[in-house]
Amino acid sequence: MHAWPASEVPALPGKGRDLRIHDTATGGPLTLDPGPVARIYVCGITPYDATHMGHAATYNAFDLVQRVWLDTKRQVHYVQNVTDVDAPLLERANRDGQDWTELAERETSLFREDMTALRMLPPQHYIGAVEAIPGIVPLVERLRDAGAAYELDGDIYFSVESDPHFGGVSHLDAEAMRLLSAERGGDPERPGKKNPLDPMLWMAAREGEPRWDGRSLGPGRPGWHIECVAIALDHLGMGFDVQGGGSDLAFPHHEMGASHAHALTGEHPYAKAYVHAGMVALHGEKMSKSKGNLVFVSALRRQGVDPAAIRLTLLAHHYRSDWEWTDAVLDEAVERLARWRAAVSRPDGPPADSLVEEVRAALADDLDAPAALRAVDRWAALQERGGGTDEGAPGVVSRTVDALLGVAL
Q1: Cα–Cα distance for residue pair 346/394, rounded to 1 Å
Q2: pLDDT at res. 377
Q3: For 203-236, how does the pLDDT look when each residue is reduced to its tens digit (9 = 90+)?
Q4: Which domain holds residue 400?
Q5: Who's near 403: CB < 8 A, 6+ residues apart?
């Protein structure tokens, strides 16, 4: 599966700062010190609907991570999946009378278009669950053969008790885990499981559903969590730098994925940092496909909204915060974009060297994009008052905003 085209990232003078970021597993800040190649895995979409603002906010956060690392003169090895076969996708296809593969291909294509418009840097490896199945099957067999998985009526379940580190990502108690498991794709009430929290690794073939050769597992399809583990281990290996996604993935998805990897390799940790973006709400409730309260990137683009303004709307909120999408927050971003573009269009302006360092410092401090925006606002305000005669300043500001914030002025 191919990703989307990369926009050029301007090189800035000097060198950026190492990223200090909030780690869900430890509950506090962690300064990341990758080697020459920083490794990041971000969980991708289940393509049964278009890209909404919750998706965009999440991918914007991890785009900033990449940009901070690139500014430190590192290379970035970024991997993202597409869950192109799963129950929600099949249910939507059945509801609408569509072929599930066509639905997945169409929505994945639209996602690529949205990511391109928003100038999100693409992953080096963009892998669909379906294409990963040949690598998933042997991992499930290994877990079963090692006693970390068991069969129940033809389905294969992972035993969470096989990982002594289970619970170390989300730090939730058993009851909270059980409730979230039921809400987020698990089946804690199924009789016969060794532990209600045990997640499915391989689902035996169901009537009318797609199936693949599972070798000794029998025909079927993979569970959700093992999909990402197979892709991450194949392309990044254990101990990669950042596992990223929305805050709703901390449990069960990232918790279970980490346990799968620990049981498979005997190593810990799966990822050095678990980083989670907040949720975006509309009309007082988290944007959700099941509720239908969504604002789509593609719909805004069709309405003529500049993608740079959409991106500035996302950047105006700290990535870990939960916030609400309104017409007012978009209007503020449109006005900010106009001010910035007017400011950099002049032939000279106030010196901007300190601005570069302010933006770097803000982003290195747990991706504080709102602080970075305020720094650019201050420079633009000085420019409006005729605050300087540095001929190179507007170009420096434009390149800084492009390189570090992903906004083309």
Answers
A1: 7
A2: 98
A3: 999 999 999 999 999 999 999 999 999 999 999 9
A4: 306-405
A5: 9, 10, 11, 12, 67, 70, 71
Which backbone phi and psi does 108 adopt, to 5 degrees?
A: -65, -40
CA pair distance 348, 336, nearest whole angstrom: 20
- Pair 270, 230: CB distance under 8 Å: no
**Residues 143-174 pLDDT 10s:** 999 999 999 999 999 999 999 999 999 999 99
Distance CA 223, CA 378 (A): 50
Measured at the CA of 353, the angle between CA 331 and CA 384, to 5 degrees, comes to 45
Task: Give the separation between CA 320 and CA 181, rounded to whole angstroms.
Answer: 22
* Token reading at 150: 């068991």
Partners of residue 38 on adjacent β-strands: 76
Residue 234, domain CATH: 3.40.50.620
Q: Are 364 and 68 in contact (CB under 8 A)?
A: yes
Beta strands in 182-310 (DSSP E): 200-204, 220-222, 240-246, 271-277, 280-282, 285-286
What SS3 class is residue 57? helix
Q: 3-class SS at 38?
A: strand
Same domain? 177 vs 248? yes
Total residue count of the chain as it appears in this document = 409
Provide the token pair at 268: 């810990």
∠ CA 52-115-271, nearest 5°, is 90
R_g of the chain computed on alpha carbons: 22
Do 163 and 276 share a domain, yes or no?
yes
pLDDT of residue 285: 81
